[in-house]
Structure formats: structure tokens, C-alpha cells
TrEMBL record:
Keyword annotations from UniProtKB, A to Z: Membrane, Transmembrane, Transmembrane helix
Transmembrane segments: 6-23
Protein's UniProt name: DUF2807 domain-containing protein
Superkingdom of origin organism: Bacteria
Amino acid sequence: MKKNAWYLYIPLLASILVLSSFIQHERIKGNGDVKQEDRQAGKFKDIGTSGEFKVYITQGNTHTIKVEAESNLLPYIETKIDGDELEVRVKKGYEIKGTKPINIYVTMQEINELAASGAGGFYSRSKLKTDELELAVSGAADADLDVDAREVKVSVSGAANVKLKGSASEADYAVSGKADIAAFDLQSNDVKVGISGSANASVNAQKKLEIGVSGMGNVKYKGNPSVSQSVSGMGKVSKEG
């Protein structure tokens, strides 16, 4: 009997787990009343988000953070600076559902790394000038950026979409899943692009283009670069214009 006594605790354990799950994920729905709130901002070079946050970036001489969301959701949206990174996230233990977009407006001097997961994204309100920009977008997130950089590194996965314009000496794109990169308007000298799954990329290369495609992905390119390519599966490479 003692061997089987642990079965008696299963209903109790199940109840505890269900209650714990409920407590850890209290859902807050937006009330439709949109407000703006200025947040304390230290110095930061990177931004990381998780959730439905649309981050609008202006490059300037100061550091500012403004959150625009429904008034009852504002207390549950955290903007925390950890080292050089601004972290934007939902307060632990809560799940928020806005009936209006949740917008984060930031001003920053230097821009190095941007990472978004979920259904949010990054949008430039001015040209972003930097030596090296690393952009990682996953899930249903997206990005629309105007860039002036020596090097741009982009990783896109899931169903994410990225649109880029401006200029970069070097560009490196990694695209997977059903993601898409539209970078015809980002003029670059040397470009590397790797595609897997059913992802797509359109790129602009002036001097050198290295392409790797697996699965059903497609790469379109502009310019007259020297091209080296490796294609497996049903993927395609084509020149535009």
C-alpha cells in the first residue's frame, strides 16, 4: 500500500499546478483609453523586446523613452536598462492584451543591437547611423529601418518581415521559416545571404554576392556583383532588372 500511496497526491498536485498557472498569467485587457507616459532613461545602445511592442527609434543626442498604451496596461509594461540594453517586456506574472497598439518611442545616441520576438517590431523615425548594426527578428515581429552603416547583420525567422533601406558596405542576411527580407533599397557592396525553409530575400549587392539556399526559399538581387551560389531543394536565385 505504501508503494502506491503517491497516487493519492495526484489530484492535489494537479490542482496546485492549475492554480499556479492561473496566478502566474493573470490577463489584463486594455480599456481603450490611450495615454502616454515618459519613463526614466539612462544610456543604452541595444534594445530587446518580447511581446506586442512597436518600437519607434530616433537617433539623437539624448536618451528618452515614452510608452503609449491603454492606461490600465501602462503599469504592466516594463522598460528596464540592463547594462547597454533597454529591455521592454510585460511585468512577470501578467499577460496583457491591448485593444490599441502599444507604441514605444525612444531616442538614443548609438545603435548596436535590436532584437524583437512576438508580434512587435522596430521602425526608424530618422536615419540610423552606426558602425555595425545587428538586427534579430522572430515570430510575427517585423522591422522597417533606414540605415547608414559599415556592416549590417540581420537574422529573421518564423513569419517575421524586415524592410531595409539606406546603405551599408557589408550586409549579412540569415532568413528561415516563412520569413521575408526586402532589402532592394539597402545598397551594399558585399552581401552574404542564407535562406532556409520557404523564406524569401531581395537584396542589393554592387560588388560581391554569396548565396546559400536550401528548401523552397528564393533570393532576388539587384546590382552587378560577382555571384557565388549554392542551391538545394526547390529554391531559386534570380536577378532583378
